[in-house]
Specification:
The protein is mostly beta strands and 172 residues long. The protein has a domain of 82 residues: Immunoglobulin-like (Sandwich), CATH 2.60.40. It has two helices and eight strands. A four-stranded mixed beta sheet has the order 1-6-5-4, with no helix packed on it. The chain has a four-stranded antiparallel beta sheet with strand order 2-3-8-7, with no helix packed on it. The longest helix is centred in the first third of the chain and has 6 residues. It starts with 5 loop residues before the first helix and ends in a 15-residue tail after the last strand.
Length: 172
């Protein structure tokens, strides 16, 4: 078997008639430990012993959620959209600087339901935050935020760096 060239190894190309498999020779074999089997009875649906595990830290403290966002631009502004369903406007804290936006808030459960009563638990409850670095500087003073049907929309006018103004020199 002929050794492959640097370019062939870098690009991943393999001649059709070559049986060379770089992974078998280069990487050590790693064995995974078998996971314990979960037994479920047909009388009751299988339940996770910790329904909130996806949102808990190792030390059983609630994790802080991170908002998914859409960020896009038009010729004159940058627009940020995110879903904040279940959050009142007074529970949202927005911080805007010329090159960054921070969205923080909290979504509180309105009812208390025992963990054993859940079949499936995927909604996030608790505090959340998101920091967005902007691709261009924005006009903080003329920015606006609105919420409708659970959708938060921030409109951030871009600063026009090409705009020039002429100043008169005053004598005196």
């Amino acid at each position: 078997m002929k050794k492959r060239s640097f370019f062939e190894r870098l690009s991943g190309s393999v001649p059709v008639n070559d049986d060379y498999d770089a992974f078998e020779e280069d990487l050590p074999v790693q064995r995974r430990q078998a996971l314990p089997a979960v037994q479920a009875t047909s009388a009751a649906p299988a339940q996770s012993p910790h329904p909130q595990t996806a949102f808990m830290h190792e030390d059983d403290e609630p994790a802080e959620g991170q908002l998914p966002v859409d960020v896009y631009q038009t010729p004159s502004e940058i627009v940020i959209r995110t879903f904040i369903a279940g959050v009142r406007p007074d529970e949202i804290n927005l911080s805007i600087s010329r090159d960054m936006v921070v969205i923080e808030g909290s979504r509180a459960e309105r009812e208390t339901i025992a963990d054993t009563e859940y079949f499936n638990r995927e909604l996030f409850w608790g505090s959340f935050s998101r920091t967005i670095l902007l691709p261009q500087e924005v006009d903080v003073e003329n920015s606006s935020a609105s919420a409708k049907d659970g959708l938060l929309t921030l409109i951030l006018p871009k600063l026009d760096k090409a705009r020039q103004t002429k100043l008169r020199v005053k004598a005196g």
